[in-house]
Amino acid sequence: MENQRLFVWIAFAAVAWLTWQAWVQDYHQPPVTQQPDAGGQPAAEAPATPADVPGLPDQEAVAIPQGDPDQGRLVSIKTDVLNLKLDTQGGDLVSALLPEYPVKKDRPDLLVQLLNPSVGNYYVFRSGLRDAAGGAEPNHQATFTIEGDAFTLADGQDVLEVPMTWRSGDGLTVRKIYRLTRGRYDIGLRYELANERADSWNGASYVQLRRRHVPLERSMVDVDTYSYRGPVLYDGEKYEKLDVEDLAAEPISMTTTGGWLASIQHHFLAAAVPPTDRPAAYRATFKDGIYTLTAIGEVRTIGAGETAIFEETLFVGPKLQEQLEETAPGLKLTVDYGFLTIISQPLFWVLEKLHGLTGNWGWAIILLTILIKLVFYKLSETSGKSMAKMRKLQPRIKALQERFQDDRQALSQAMMDMYKREKVNPASGCLPILVQMPVFLALYWVLLESVEMRQAPFMLWINDLSSRDPYFILPLMMGITMFIQQKLNPAPPDPVQAKVMMALPIVFTVFFAFFPAGLVLYWFVNNLLSIAQQWRINKVIDA
């Protein structure tokens, strides 16, 4: 029984090691740098492939001739949170920079870039309308006209609309309008179609998300412990991360209501959300290193002389959970806490409320640690009392070891009899550790996946809670508190086990040196509270 505490700590160390490996993988990927602006002209598209235009729900995808399409021009759109570029060929969003999110905190000029038209980092939205009769249509190969080269959300202005126009030449006019809102990363996309022809028009709107897949190098650690990067689909009920190799062998095709499609990565995503009250056909393919996610709405008939509106919502930006939840049902699931979601989401909810009170994520973590300690106070107290009694029994245990030094079985039986007489449970010291393990790992994923805490400062030298302590001071302080805890608790009877237990603070200090500072802060404060509680219990038992 006296070995159980050692085994639990060793298991915890193993889990910490795997978690550290995942952290290294997540935070040591080479950053994607910004591509130089192509002199106002769109950069070359991905490798030459047929310019596939999605078919209508009851049709196969069709290809339009490549030829020499008109060269579009790039139009700049700036809000307080987005720097976008719009291509007049197709009227599509092809570039997105996030001015509030630098790649590194010490390089505020190097911004996170999501959409990118360059070949090596190809990542764009394509959208348009399909004509069921096969006539001229404003798809992503059509050329739109726009008045102006730059649009900016002015001070005091809450909404910016950017309109583009396409005309068929036979009486069909389409205005494609992007609507951006101050402080928001969701973008409204609206088509205003006016049919001035003599006959009706049948067609549907579509949106495509295309991205070059750049595989991340993995170690032998389970890939489920990593922050996922790739395509995802939501069918209105189920959220699914897609494997590109599976898509290459077997593309996905389905029709559902209330779904959406997205490409996600650590902390950021681009998503397309069709109207949630109408069915849409979804397709996902992977070819020539690029995955394509397509959603096309139901075919509608617009009579002669009538007008109609088609709408979609795009999201380009950080995984801010409140905005994701407001944009579409299920979009919040892109904040991937994995199998610990059931613990991580409540933890984040509490953290967010505490941050609202303190205005600082570091103090929110400290208050959360105190709350967790209060929740498990009785369990820790019971365990602490048992450990204090074990500590008082140490002289008697040593006497039994000397008496039965040549008979391990008799020693174990004598110690079990003594524990029973004194009403001591040596295994109870494992309970607080076992309880904290899932909370510890859940908080790790909250710190890792929640963009709200990305590059968040605390105080003094800790200027980024989501990355390691630059001077390793906090891990060292955590190791010292862990050593003090060991001194307050009884040492294992076996001298070898005792030496291993005394080495654990050093091992954990090394592990935690590379953990996010916010996680080390949690463990440090938890150790301080545990020391205070155990010191008080020891005093009571000694008295």
How are the secondary structure elements laid out?
Elements: H1 4-27, E1 51-53, E2 62-64, E3 74-78, E4 83-87, E5 92-104, E6 107-113, E7 123-131, E8 150-152, E9 159-167, E10 172-181, E11 186-195, E12 201-212, E13 230-234, E14 239-241, H2 244-249, E15 252-257, E16 260-265, E17 268-273, E18 279-287, E19 290-297, E20 300-302, E21 307-318, H3 321-327, H4 341-358, H5 361-375, H6 377-392, H7 394-403, H8 408-422, H9 431-449, H10 473-488, H11 495-512, H12 517-542
Parallel strand pairs: 3-8
Antiparallel strand pairs: 1-2, 3-4, 4-5, 5-6, 7-12, 9-10, 10-11, 11-21, 12-19, 12-20, 13-14, 13-16, 15-18, 16-17, 17-21, 18-19
Helix pairs in contact: 1-9, 1-11, 4-5, 4-9, 5-12, 6-12, 10-11, 10-12
Give your account of this protein's structure:
- The structure is a single chain.
- Strand 4 (83-87) and strand 5 form a beta hairpin.
- The chain folds into two domains: 4-24 and 345-542, no CATH class; 41-212 and 224-336, Beta-galactosidase, Chain A, domain 5, CATH 2.70.98.
- The chain has helices at residues 4-27, 244-249, 321-327, 341-358, 361-375, 377-392, 394-403, 408-422, 431-449, 473-488, 495-512, 517-542, and strands at 51-53, 62-64, 74-78, 83-87, 92-104, 107-113, 123-131, 150-152, 159-167, 172-181, 186-195, 201-212, 230-234, 239-241, 252-257, 260-265, 268-273, 279-287, 290-297, 300-302, 307-318.
- The strands form four sheets. The protein has an eight-stranded antiparallel sheet. Strands 7, 12, 15, 18, 19 and 20 form a six-stranded antiparallel sheet that branches.
- Residues 1-11, 17-51, 62-69 and 219-225 have low confidence and may be disordered.
- Helix 4 (341-358) packs across helix 5 and helix 4 (341-358) packs across helix 9.
- The protein starts with a helix and ends with a helix.
- The protein is an alpha+beta fold and 543 residues long.
